[in-house]
């Protein structure tokens, strides 16, 4: 659900999911024709990984227990490692990583702001849900990249797609305080629209709005289905 409560943003249509009992397997949609250049792909993905590291670091700083701090520091380290590997791919192409990431800075900063969460629990859900959604999306988008560099980039982003440690932290928190469940479920739903917006910004779209929307709708329907599964993993309702 797009978060209309705090601000007016570009309107996007979030596909409605059918009940789990009625969902049927669908053919995967090819994003190859919508994939940006390799340098833009790497720059955007690298900056998002850096933003995940920053958000995880903030969550580490305010974590209520030493055990939670240690877990979050470990997950943050993996996000930073993915960022570092993507930067190496840029450097292999003799591209300045800062210049490659700069065009995406404003969008990523705004995304961080609106998905930060009001407390540690919401931030924890944000870390798991948004990183999982966007890693999944960029893996799909990478189908349009050619050559070994594209394959390496996709392989980097496939690492740690599930972050089970974050799931365990959320489950433990809700188990200790069941009243958190409804609030975190609502927060998870509010994250979807903003996460879809930043994913959509990575696509190279044509001028025919209706045609392009028809092409990308099945992609986001599948991504939202994966989001629903992630919320199920957390014991929350999507």
UniProtKB/TrEMBL annotation:
Pfam families in the cross-refs: MiaE_2
Residues covered by the Ferritin-like domain: 41-198
The protein's name: Ferritin-like fold-containing protein
Organism: Lysobacter korlensis
């Amino acid at each position: 659900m797009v978060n209309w409560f705090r601000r007016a943003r570009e309107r996007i249509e979030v596909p409605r999911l059918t009940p789990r009992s009625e969902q049927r397997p669908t053919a995967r949609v090819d994003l190859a024709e919508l994939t940006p250049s390799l340098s833009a792909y790497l720059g955007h993905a690298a900056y998002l990984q850096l933003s995940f590291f920053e958000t995880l670091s903030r969550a580490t700083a305010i974590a209520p227990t030493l055990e939670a701090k240690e877990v979050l520091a470990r997950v943050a380290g993996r996000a930073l490692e993915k960022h570092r590997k993507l930067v190496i791919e840029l450097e292999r192409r003799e591209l300045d990583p800062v210049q490659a990431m700069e065009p995406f800075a404003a969008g990523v900063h705004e995304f961080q702001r609106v998905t930060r969460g009001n407390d540690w629990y919401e931030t924890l859900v944000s870390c798991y849900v948004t990183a999982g959604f966007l890693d999944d999306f960029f893996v799909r988008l990478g189908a349009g990249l050619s050559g070994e560099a594209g394959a390496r980039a996709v392989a980097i982003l496939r690492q740690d797609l599930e972050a089970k440690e974050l799931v365990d932290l959320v489950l433990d928190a809700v188990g200790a305080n069941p009243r958190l469940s409804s609030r975190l479920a609502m927060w998870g739903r509010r994250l979807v629209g903003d996460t879809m917006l930043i994913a959509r910004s990575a696509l190279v779209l044509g001028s025919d709005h209706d045609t392009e929307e028809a092409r990308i709708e099945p992609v986001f329907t599948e991504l939202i289905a994966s989001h629903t599964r992630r919320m199920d993993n957390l014991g929350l309702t999507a």
